[in-house]
Amino acid sequence: MTHAQPHQRRPVTIVVAAALLALEGLVGLAYAAISVGQIRLSRAAVGVGVAILMAVFGVFLLLVARGVFLGRRWSRGPAVATQLILLPIAWSFRGGVTTWVSVALAVLAIVVLIGLLHPRSTAVFVGPAAGS
């Protein structure tokens, strides 16, 4: 079984992981939109590059979130990889006034990883174990 069947309930672990991935994607798109408004002529190439990169990243995460929600096998790897990248980013925000950002990013990444790697999620992504 490579994806959830319509008559089967999706595990809450997958629903939560997909919802949080979608939230990350929407934040990426929002950051891209904000970046467009902050482009200055003196650094136009950097501003446009950041806006495009964040827009692509946001759309990518939305597609991955959809794949996770539908139980598509291909979506699990990119979802896990993005969360593993998010953890050191969270670490970089620790200390001072950005500590809350660090905690929020770390908790978000850990919750998504737990949702993706939980045995019920694994059963949806890779199918039941042999002999089950």
Quick summary of this structure?
The protein contains five helices and no strands.
Structural description of this entry:
The protein has 132 residues and is an all-alpha fold. The protein has one domain (12-126). 76% of the residues lie in helices and 0% in strands. The protein is built from five helices and no strands. Helix 1 (12-37) packs antiparallel against helix 2 (44-70) and helix 1 runs antiparallel to helix 4. The model has no long low-confidence stretch (mean pLDDT 90).
Q: What is the percent of helical residues? A: over 70%
The first-to-last residue Cα distance is: 13 Å
Structural class of the secondary structure composition?
Answer: mainly alpha
Rounded to an integer in angstroms, the radius of gyration calculated over CA atoms is 17 Å
How many strand elements? 0
Reading the helices and strands in chain order gives HHHHH
- Uncertain runs with pLDDT below 50, 5 residues or more? none
> Biggest sheet, open or closed, and with what strands and sense?
none
Give a topology summary:
Layout: H1 12-37, H2 44-70, H3 73-92, H4 99-117, H5 119-126
List keywords for this structure.
single chain; 132 residues; mainly alpha; 5 helices; 0% strand
